[in-house]
Amino acid sequence: MNWDTLSQSNLETILNWAEEQPWCRAMSQCAQDSSWHAEGDVWTHTKMVCRQLTELNEWPDLSLQEQAILTFTALLHDAAKPLTSETDPETGRIRSPKHAVKGEHLARSILRELDCDLETRETICRLVRFHGRPAFLLEKSKPEHEVISLSWLVNHRLLYLFALADTRGRTTDSMSRPEEHLRFWKMIAEERDCFEQPYPFANDQARFLFYRCSDPDLYYIPHEDYTCTVTMLSGLPGSGKDTWLSKHRANLPVVSLDEVRGELEIQPTENQGEVAQMAQERCRELLRAKTSFAYNATNLSRQTRQRWINLFADYGARIEIVYLEPPLKTILHQNQQQTKVVPEKVIHQLAQRCEPPTITEAHLLVLSDT
Protein backbone atom coordinates (compact mmCIF):
# COMPACT_ATOMS: atom_id res chain seq x y z
CA MET A 1 0.00 0.00 0.00
CA ASN A 2 1.25 3.49 -0.80
CA TRP A 3 0.74 6.89 0.81
CA ASP A 4 -1.97 8.14 -1.56
CA THR A 5 -4.16 5.14 -0.82
CA LEU A 6 -3.40 4.73 2.86
CA SER A 7 -3.69 8.41 3.81
CA GLN A 8 -7.21 8.53 2.38
CA SER A 9 -8.35 5.43 4.25
CA ASN A 10 -10.40 5.51 7.44
CA LEU A 11 -8.69 5.24 10.80
CA GLU A 12 -9.48 1.57 11.40
CA THR A 13 -7.96 0.62 8.03
CA ILE A 14 -4.81 2.58 8.89
CA LEU A 15 -4.56 0.93 12.31
CA ASN A 16 -5.09 -2.53 10.80
CA TRP A 17 -2.34 -1.83 8.26
CA ALA A 18 -0.01 -0.64 11.03
CA GLU A 19 -0.55 -3.77 13.11
CA GLU A 20 1.00 -5.82 10.32
CA GLN A 21 4.23 -3.79 10.39
CA PRO A 22 7.26 -4.90 12.44
CA TRP A 23 7.69 -1.47 14.07
CA CYS A 24 4.10 -1.69 15.31
CA ARG A 25 4.52 -5.18 16.70
CA ALA A 26 7.52 -3.85 18.61
CA MET A 27 5.35 -1.10 20.09
CA SER A 28 2.76 -3.62 21.27
CA GLN A 29 5.51 -5.43 23.19
CA CYS A 30 7.02 -2.28 24.71
CA ALA A 31 5.94 -1.46 28.27
CA GLN A 32 5.66 2.11 29.55
CA ASP A 33 6.02 3.74 32.95
CA SER A 34 2.67 3.49 34.72
CA SER A 35 3.05 6.98 36.20
CA TRP A 36 2.67 8.39 32.71
CA HIS A 37 0.83 5.58 30.96
CA ALA A 38 -1.43 3.51 33.14
CA GLU A 39 -3.10 2.21 29.98
CA GLY A 40 -0.14 -0.06 29.26
CA ASP A 41 2.07 -0.66 26.21
CA VAL A 42 3.05 1.87 23.55
CA TRP A 43 0.65 0.56 20.91
CA THR A 44 -2.31 0.78 23.28
CA HIS A 45 -1.46 4.42 23.94
CA THR A 46 -0.92 5.08 20.22
CA LYS A 47 -4.38 3.78 19.30
CA MET A 48 -5.94 5.90 22.05
CA VAL A 49 -4.21 9.02 20.73
CA CYS A 50 -5.33 8.31 17.16
CA ARG A 51 -8.94 8.01 18.32
CA GLN A 52 -8.70 11.08 20.53
CA LEU A 53 -7.79 13.12 17.48
CA THR A 54 -11.15 12.40 15.88
CA GLU A 55 -12.90 13.49 19.10
CA LEU A 56 -11.37 16.96 19.04
CA ASN A 57 -13.85 19.78 18.44
CA GLU A 58 -11.54 21.16 15.75
CA TRP A 59 -11.24 17.88 13.83
CA PRO A 60 -14.15 18.40 11.38
CA ASP A 61 -12.74 21.79 10.37
CA LEU A 62 -9.37 20.37 9.33
CA SER A 63 -8.62 19.61 5.70
CA LEU A 64 -8.20 15.97 4.68
CA GLN A 65 -4.48 16.65 4.28
CA GLU A 66 -4.23 18.03 7.82
CA GLN A 67 -6.19 15.08 9.20
CA ALA A 68 -3.81 12.66 7.47
CA ILE A 69 -0.78 14.52 8.82
CA LEU A 70 -2.09 14.39 12.38
CA THR A 71 -3.15 10.75 12.10
CA PHE A 72 0.30 9.65 11.00
CA THR A 73 1.96 11.88 13.56
CA ALA A 74 -0.06 10.04 16.21
CA LEU A 75 0.71 6.68 14.62
CA LEU A 76 4.46 7.28 14.63
CA HIS A 77 5.12 9.68 17.52
CA ASP A 78 6.23 6.93 19.93
CA ALA A 79 7.33 4.36 17.35
CA ALA A 80 10.96 4.63 18.48
CA LYS A 81 10.23 3.85 22.13
CA PRO A 82 11.05 0.15 21.59
CA LEU A 83 14.48 1.31 20.39
CA THR A 84 15.13 3.61 23.35
CA SER A 85 13.23 2.30 26.39
CA GLU A 86 15.24 1.31 29.42
CA THR A 87 14.62 0.68 33.09
CA ASP A 88 16.36 2.93 35.59
CA PRO A 89 18.33 0.54 37.85
CA GLU A 90 17.83 2.77 40.89
CA THR A 91 14.16 3.69 40.62
CA GLY A 92 12.85 0.83 38.48
CA ARG A 93 11.01 3.35 36.30
CA ILE A 94 10.87 3.02 32.52
CA ARG A 95 12.15 5.88 30.43
CA SER A 96 12.71 6.41 26.70
CA PRO A 97 15.43 9.04 26.22
CA LYS A 98 15.55 10.71 22.81
CA HIS A 99 12.70 8.61 21.45
CA ALA A 100 11.37 11.65 19.59
CA VAL A 101 14.71 12.24 17.84
CA LYS A 102 15.02 8.60 16.80
CA GLY A 103 11.32 8.63 15.99
CA GLU A 104 11.88 11.34 13.40
CA HIS A 105 14.34 9.12 11.52
CA LEU A 106 12.12 6.05 11.84
CA ALA A 107 9.08 8.00 10.61
CA ARG A 108 11.07 9.28 7.64
CA SER A 109 12.05 5.74 6.69
CA ILE A 110 8.50 4.41 7.01
CA LEU A 111 6.99 7.27 5.02
CA ARG A 112 9.69 7.04 2.36
CA GLU A 113 8.75 3.41 1.80
CA LEU A 114 5.13 4.52 1.35
CA ASP A 115 6.20 7.02 -1.35
CA CYS A 116 4.85 9.89 0.73
CA ASP A 117 5.56 13.23 -0.94
CA LEU A 118 8.55 15.11 0.46
CA GLU A 119 6.75 18.13 1.94
CA THR A 120 4.11 16.05 3.74
CA ARG A 121 6.70 13.57 4.97
CA GLU A 122 8.90 16.25 6.49
CA THR A 123 5.89 17.94 8.08
CA ILE A 124 5.02 14.69 9.86
CA CYS A 125 8.64 13.96 10.78
CA ARG A 126 9.08 17.35 12.43
CA LEU A 127 5.83 16.96 14.35
CA VAL A 128 7.11 13.59 15.59
CA ARG A 129 10.43 15.19 16.54
CA PHE A 130 8.86 18.03 18.54
CA HIS A 131 5.63 16.43 19.71
CA GLY A 132 6.52 16.63 23.40
CA ARG A 133 7.72 20.24 23.51
CA PRO A 134 4.43 22.02 24.41
CA ALA A 135 3.93 19.98 27.57
CA PHE A 136 7.31 21.09 28.93
CA LEU A 137 7.11 24.75 27.96
CA LEU A 138 7.11 26.02 31.54
CA GLU A 139 10.46 24.33 32.13
CA LYS A 140 12.11 26.59 29.53
CA SER A 141 13.95 29.71 30.69
CA LYS A 142 12.52 31.66 27.73
CA PRO A 143 9.16 30.13 26.75
CA GLU A 144 8.50 32.82 24.16
CA HIS A 145 11.74 32.05 22.31
CA GLU A 146 10.88 28.34 22.35
CA VAL A 147 7.52 28.96 20.68
CA ILE A 148 8.95 31.38 18.11
CA SER A 149 11.84 29.08 17.30
CA LEU A 150 9.61 26.08 16.59
CA SER A 151 7.16 28.11 14.49
CA TRP A 152 9.44 27.76 11.45
CA LEU A 153 9.72 24.01 11.96
CA VAL A 154 6.14 23.00 12.74
CA ASN A 155 2.64 24.42 12.41
CA HIS A 156 1.67 25.31 15.98
CA ARG A 157 -2.02 24.73 15.39
CA LEU A 158 -1.36 21.13 14.35
CA LEU A 159 1.20 20.65 17.12
CA TYR A 160 -1.27 21.96 19.71
CA LEU A 161 -4.06 19.68 18.50
CA PHE A 162 -1.76 16.68 18.54
CA ALA A 163 -0.55 17.53 22.05
CA LEU A 164 -4.15 17.63 23.25
CA ALA A 165 -4.84 14.19 21.81
CA ASP A 166 -1.56 12.85 23.21
CA THR A 167 -2.44 14.11 26.70
CA ARG A 168 -5.95 12.70 26.55
CA GLY A 169 -4.91 9.39 24.99
CA ARG A 170 -4.02 7.66 28.25
CA THR A 171 -5.75 6.46 31.40
CA THR A 172 -3.39 8.00 33.96
CA ASP A 173 -5.49 9.55 36.72
CA SER A 174 -3.09 12.35 37.57
CA MET A 175 -1.14 13.97 34.75
CA SER A 176 1.94 16.02 35.63
CA ARG A 177 1.59 17.79 32.30
CA PRO A 178 -1.94 19.24 32.40
CA GLU A 179 -3.72 20.77 29.46
CA GLU A 180 -3.18 24.22 30.97
CA HIS A 181 0.43 23.97 29.79
CA LEU A 182 -0.79 23.34 26.27
CA ARG A 183 -3.15 26.30 26.37
CA PHE A 184 -0.26 28.46 27.56
CA TRP A 185 1.69 27.34 24.47
CA LYS A 186 -1.25 28.29 22.27
CA MET A 187 -1.64 31.65 23.97
CA ILE A 188 2.00 32.62 23.39
CA ALA A 189 1.82 31.48 19.76
CA GLU A 190 -1.30 33.54 19.17
CA GLU A 191 0.16 36.60 20.89
CA ARG A 192 3.27 36.35 18.74
CA ASP A 193 1.24 35.81 15.57
CA CYS A 194 2.74 32.39 14.90
CA PHE A 195 -0.06 29.97 15.75
CA GLU A 196 -1.26 29.58 12.15
CA GLN A 197 1.96 30.68 10.46
CA PRO A 198 5.70 31.06 11.16
CA TYR A 199 6.76 33.98 13.32
CA PRO A 200 6.97 37.15 11.14
CA PHE A 201 10.63 38.13 11.37
CA ALA A 202 11.50 41.56 9.97
CA ASN A 203 13.46 39.99 7.11
CA ASP A 204 15.33 36.84 6.09
CA GLN A 205 18.54 37.99 7.75
CA ALA A 206 16.73 38.56 11.05
CA ARG A 207 15.47 34.96 10.93
CA PHE A 208 18.89 33.64 9.90
CA LEU A 209 20.62 35.40 12.80
CA PHE A 210 17.93 34.34 15.30
CA TYR A 211 18.77 30.67 14.73
CA ARG A 212 22.53 31.33 14.87
CA CYS A 213 22.57 33.26 18.15
CA SER A 214 22.49 31.71 21.61
CA ASP A 215 20.59 34.72 22.98
CA PRO A 216 18.89 36.39 20.01
CA ASP A 217 17.29 39.84 20.12
CA LEU A 218 13.78 39.67 18.64
CA TYR A 219 13.67 43.42 18.13
CA TYR A 220 16.92 43.77 16.19
CA ILE A 221 16.34 44.48 12.50
CA PRO A 222 19.54 43.79 10.56
CA HIS A 223 20.31 45.47 7.27
CA GLU A 224 20.21 43.10 4.31
CA ASP A 225 23.34 43.82 2.32
CA TYR A 226 24.76 40.55 1.06
CA THR A 227 28.10 40.28 -0.69
CA CYS A 228 26.89 37.46 -2.96
CA THR A 229 24.58 34.45 -3.01
CA VAL A 230 25.74 30.90 -2.38
CA THR A 231 23.47 28.09 -3.55
CA MET A 232 24.16 24.93 -1.56
CA LEU A 233 22.94 21.69 -3.13
CA SER A 234 21.94 18.83 -0.86
CA GLY A 235 20.74 15.35 -1.74
CA LEU A 236 21.57 11.68 -2.08
CA PRO A 237 23.83 10.49 -4.92
CA GLY A 238 21.65 10.25 -8.00
CA SER A 239 19.07 12.77 -6.76
CA GLY A 240 19.69 15.10 -9.72
CA LYS A 241 21.83 17.89 -8.28
CA ASP A 242 23.86 18.44 -11.47
CA THR A 243 20.69 18.45 -13.57
CA TRP A 244 19.04 20.99 -11.24
CA LEU A 245 22.03 23.30 -11.49
CA SER A 246 22.09 23.09 -15.29
CA LYS A 247 18.40 24.02 -15.42
CA HIS A 248 18.20 26.68 -12.70
CA ARG A 249 21.72 28.07 -12.10
CA ALA A 250 23.44 27.42 -15.41
CA ASN A 251 25.49 30.62 -15.33
CA LEU A 252 26.95 30.12 -11.85
CA PRO A 253 30.46 28.87 -11.20
CA VAL A 254 30.29 25.60 -9.28
CA VAL A 255 32.49 24.22 -6.52
CA SER A 256 31.86 20.48 -6.65
CA LEU A 257 33.33 17.95 -4.23
CA ASP A 258 33.04 15.23 -6.87
CA GLU A 259 35.09 17.30 -9.33
CA VAL A 260 37.71 18.06 -6.69
CA ARG A 261 37.98 14.35 -5.86
CA GLY A 262 38.45 13.59 -9.55
CA GLU A 263 41.21 16.18 -9.90
CA LEU A 264 43.00 14.85 -6.84
CA GLU A 265 42.26 11.21 -7.77
CA ILE A 266 40.87 10.53 -4.30
CA GLN A 267 38.11 7.95 -3.88
CA PRO A 268 35.03 8.75 -1.73
CA THR A 269 36.07 5.95 0.66
CA GLU A 270 39.50 7.54 1.25
CA ASN A 271 40.46 10.40 3.59
CA GLN A 272 38.62 13.54 2.43
CA GLY A 273 40.76 16.12 4.24
CA GLU A 274 42.60 17.29 1.14
CA VAL A 275 39.37 17.38 -0.85
CA ALA A 276 37.64 19.58 1.72
CA GLN A 277 40.66 21.86 2.00
CA MET A 278 40.81 22.49 -1.76
CA ALA A 279 37.03 23.01 -1.96
CA GLN A 280 37.15 25.49 0.92
CA GLU A 281 39.91 27.49 -0.76
CA ARG A 282 37.95 27.67 -4.02
CA CYS A 283 34.90 28.85 -2.09
CA ARG A 284 36.99 31.49 -0.33
CA GLU A 285 38.34 32.78 -3.64
CA LEU A 286 34.80 33.30 -4.91
CA LEU A 287 33.62 34.77 -1.61
CA ARG A 288 36.52 37.24 -1.52
CA ALA A 289 35.65 38.27 -5.06
CA LYS A 290 31.99 38.66 -4.00
CA THR A 291 30.97 36.29 -6.78
CA SER A 292 27.79 34.23 -6.47
CA PHE A 293 28.35 30.50 -6.92
CA ALA A 294 26.95 27.03 -6.22
CA TYR A 295 28.42 24.53 -3.80
CA ASN A 296 27.57 20.99 -4.91
CA ALA A 297 27.92 18.02 -2.54
CA THR A 298 25.60 15.56 -0.80
CA ASN A 299 25.47 17.70 2.41
CA LEU A 300 23.17 15.19 4.08
CA SER A 301 23.80 16.01 7.74
CA ARG A 302 23.10 19.26 9.53
CA GLN A 303 26.56 19.18 11.09
CA THR A 304 28.26 18.96 7.69
CA ARG A 305 26.11 21.73 6.23
CA GLN A 306 26.77 23.94 9.24
CA ARG A 307 30.53 23.97 8.67
CA TRP A 308 30.06 25.27 5.15
CA ILE A 309 27.28 27.67 6.11
CA ASN A 310 29.57 29.18 8.75
CA LEU A 311 32.17 29.81 6.06
CA PHE A 312 29.68 31.45 3.70
CA ALA A 313 28.13 33.55 6.47
CA ASP A 314 31.54 34.81 7.60
CA TYR A 315 31.85 36.50 4.20
CA GLY A 316 28.36 38.03 4.37
CA ALA A 317 26.78 35.81 1.71
CA ARG A 318 23.08 35.14 1.26
CA ILE A 319 22.68 31.38 1.58
CA GLU A 320 20.19 29.27 -0.35
CA ILE A 321 19.83 25.53 0.24
CA VAL A 322 18.31 23.33 -2.45
CA TYR A 323 17.40 19.85 -1.22
CA LEU A 324 16.47 17.24 -3.83
CA GLU A 325 14.88 13.90 -3.03
CA PRO A 326 12.84 12.24 -5.75
CA PRO A 327 11.43 8.76 -4.99
CA LEU A 328 14.15 6.31 -3.99
CA LYS A 329 13.55 4.13 -7.05
CA THR A 330 14.21 7.20 -9.23
CA ILE A 331 17.40 7.97 -7.31
CA LEU A 332 18.63 4.40 -7.75
CA HIS A 333 17.87 4.51 -11.48
CA GLN A 334 19.58 7.87 -11.97
CA ASN A 335 22.57 6.66 -9.99
CA GLN A 336 23.04 3.84 -12.49
CA GLN A 337 23.26 6.41 -15.30
CA GLN A 338 26.12 8.31 -13.67
CA THR A 339 29.76 8.01 -14.68
CA LYS A 340 30.70 6.88 -11.18
CA VAL A 341 28.01 4.60 -9.79
CA VAL A 342 27.53 4.55 -6.02
CA PRO A 343 26.69 1.09 -4.64
CA GLU A 344 22.97 0.78 -3.89
CA LYS A 345 23.75 -0.42 -0.38
CA VAL A 346 25.55 2.84 0.30
CA ILE A 347 22.63 4.90 -0.97
CA HIS A 348 20.23 3.03 1.31
CA GLN A 349 22.56 3.62 4.25
CA LEU A 350 22.83 7.33 3.46
CA ALA A 351 19.05 7.59 3.16
CA GLN A 352 18.64 6.11 6.64
CA ARG A 353 21.00 8.72 8.16
CA CYS A 354 19.90 11.67 6.04
CA GLU A 355 18.82 14.88 7.81
CA PRO A 356 16.97 17.03 5.26
CA PRO A 357 17.68 20.75 5.74
CA THR A 358 15.19 23.18 7.23
CA ILE A 359 14.61 26.89 6.68
CA THR A 360 16.30 27.56 10.03
CA GLU A 361 19.68 26.89 8.37
CA ALA A 362 19.55 29.41 5.53
CA HIS A 363 17.96 32.52 4.04
CA LEU A 364 16.02 30.42 1.51
CA LEU A 365 15.15 26.74 1.29
CA VAL A 366 13.97 24.88 -1.80
CA LEU A 367 12.62 21.33 -1.42
CA SER A 368 11.99 19.28 -4.52
CA ASP A 369 10.91 15.65 -4.95
CA THR A 370 10.87 15.68 -8.75
Automatic annotation (TrEMBL):
UniProt xrefs under CDD domains: HDc
Database matches in Gene3D superfamilies: cca-adding enzyme, domain 2, P-loop containing nucleotide triphosphate hydrolases
Claim: Ribonucleoprotein is one of the keywords in the record: no
One Gene Ontology molecular-function label: nucleotide binding
A Pfam family it matches: AAA_33
Alphabetical keyword list: Nucleotide-binding
Sequence ranges assigned to domain HD in this UniProt record: 42-136
Protein name in UniProt: HD domain protein
Annotated source species: Gimesia alba
